[in-house]
Design brief:
509 residues, alpha/beta, Rossmann fold, 2 domains, two-stranded antiparallel ribbon, 17 strands
Length: 509
């Protein structure tokens, strides 16, 4: 069986196709058949796409099996572009093309004049080339300044003058992105931002393959799989998809945010830069405790439900990714200053990540009045309360609460070394033991044990079992015992003022 690199002429290619060595098919059929092979083999279709296995992926598979052009509708940060780029894995590794052709012409069925002329002159001796799958994906971000010439093409008068050709000649055409994506995948991001008259220019490309450039009809039966993305809220904010174009798009697929904290954590773990300077002599190992990862992820979930945040704009998964990177960086800064071998984030490091959180959501009027930073602090405290309740609700923390209520005092800061945190923590009866009961191994290194202690203290504060303020630091709650017991059973009140963290000293009394 000949190798692809040995097939160098049109005659070689014809014989290879006849023997079934090289498939000859449209892009839609190529994607469909390669998809069928993967489904039969039980392969994972889109590596790196988390949380869509039972929702988005089946709909996308149906669209591809139906040989549809499709659109992905969803809010920002829902992996729409990543899904489009993953379609490349369903293309053949290489396909035969006419060398030097701007539109990747098929040697067996050429559609452009120069290629037809070359084949007519050289016959089966015509040289062919091979195009890799990555070069067959073309992506365009739709912006209002995109022109029809950018998308379809234009007439090149200089080319016409030099060759002595009529402007209507096909040989004078300068092809745009669409023809140059021939025999591949053409993706348009944020389709509503494309001007209506440009969307009109896509009609016949989708349906019949007819193109008109500067009023000159040009028959180009392009072979394309076309895919689009759009934010449904942009239909009225910045533009809309015109009805005739929507009618020509075969499938409309809705994306979504992670439905559970576990999926969100998996995405953040996959995307965030957590392994810093691996292999370098100055590398510092980072270990993120599970409860810290859960809190960071919970912030995004809390934000998506908060009435002060605009749900139409969405809260991207990038919030959790950026926040996690800042959390690890704050732990890294502390470890470097204290000479510790491992950077282990603490819950208080999450407050230091405020700069990576406040810019990731749009505020409603109520949120604007309170301010993005205050809202972000409320979200962090609500997240700590939610996660801590899962870890501590079945454990007895009465001994620690009583210690504070009896006037005990504990002073910590987020820049304090792990050894110093543990030294202070041992003054509080049951505090270190509760951290171990919450999941920190008894033989854990000091950095992880200190993070567990910090989690217990911040959790008790978030659950309103101990108090905290800028003036007095951490202190026993001043509400009556009956009210305090009721508060332990009630949901977290998001309007409770939250004291600042990140570098400021904290006092537990």
């Amino acid at each position: 069986m000949p190798k692809l690199q040995d097939i160098s002429t049109l005659g070689d290619l014809r014989r290879a196709v006849e023997r079934g060595v090289v498939p000859h098919r449209s892009v839609h059929r190529e994607v469909r058949e390669n998809l069928i092979v993967k489904l039969r083999a039980g392969e994972r279709l889109f590596p790196g796409i988390v949380g869509y296995d039972d929702t988005v992926v089946p709909q996308l598979v149906n669209a591809l099996l139906s040989q549809h052009n499709f659109i992905l509708l969803g809010l920002r940060g829902q992996a729409k572009t990543r899904l489009l780029r993953a379609l490349v894995t369903l293309l053949d590794e290489r396909i035969p093309v006419m060398p030097g052709c701007e539109i990747n012409d098929d040697p067996l069925e050429p559609i452009c004049g120069p290629c037809r002329s070359r084949i007519a002159a050289d016959g089966d001796a015509t040289r062919i080339g091979w195009l890799g799958r990555d070069a067959r994906y073309v992506e365009k971000l739709a912006t209002p300044d995109v022109t029809i010439a950018d998308m379809v093409g234009d007439i090149d008068p200089i080319k016409a003058a030099k060759a002595g050709l009529q402007l209507s000649s096909e040989l004078t055409m300068h092809y745009g992105l669409l023809p140059r994506a021939n025999r591949g995948i053409f993706a348009i991001n944020e389709l509503p931002d494309l001007a209506g008259k440009i969307q009109v220019g896509l009609f016949n490309i989708l349906q019949e393959g007819d193109v008109q450039i500067k009023g000159y009809p040009l028959r180009l039966p392009l072979d394309l799989l076309m895919a689009f993305t759009a934010n449904p809220e942009d239909y009225t904010a910045r533009g809309k998809i015109i009805t005739p174009l929507k009618d020509r798009i075969g499938s409309e697929i809705r994306t979504h945010y992670p439905t559970g904290r576990a999926d969100g954590m998996a995405i953040t773990q996959q995307e965030a830069w957590l392994q810093r300077d691996a292999g370098a002599s100055h590398a510092l190992a980072a270990q993120v405790p599970t409860f810290v990862a859960e809190i960071v992820e919970e912030i995004a979930f809390q934000a998506r439900q908060d009435r002060r945040i605009d749900k139409r704009s969405g809260v991207s998964q990038r919030l959790a990714i950026s926040a996690m990177e800042n959390v690890v960086s704050n732990a890294e800064r502390r470890a470097l200053g204290c000479g510790e071998p491992t950077a282990v984030p603490r819950v208080t490091d999450v407050y230091a990540a405020l700069p990576s959180i406040t810019g990731k959501f749009e505020m409603e009027y109520e949120g604007e009045l309170k301010g993005a930073e205050a809202v972000a602090r409320d979200l962090i405290r609500a997240s700590v309360a939610t996660v801590a309740d899962g870890y501590l609700s079945h454990l007895d923390s009465r001994q620690i609460i009583d210690w504070f209520e009896l006037g005990g005092s504990l002073q910590l800061s987020d820049s304090m070394s792990a050894a110093d945190v543990l030294t202070e923590a041992h003054k509080v009866q049951g505090l270190v033991d509760l951290a171990h009961a919450a999941g920190v191994p008894t033989d854990a290194p000091a950095e992880l044990a200190a993070s567990g202690v910090d989690f217990v203290l911040e959790g008790l504060y978030a659950l309103k079992k101990i108090g905290r303020s800028d003036e007095r630091g951490y202190h026993a709650t001043e509400t009556p015992a009956a009210t305090r017991r009721q508060g332990r059973e009630s949901a977290f009140n998001e309007d409770t003022p939250v004291a600042s963290g990140g570098g400021k000293k904290k006092y537990y009394n």
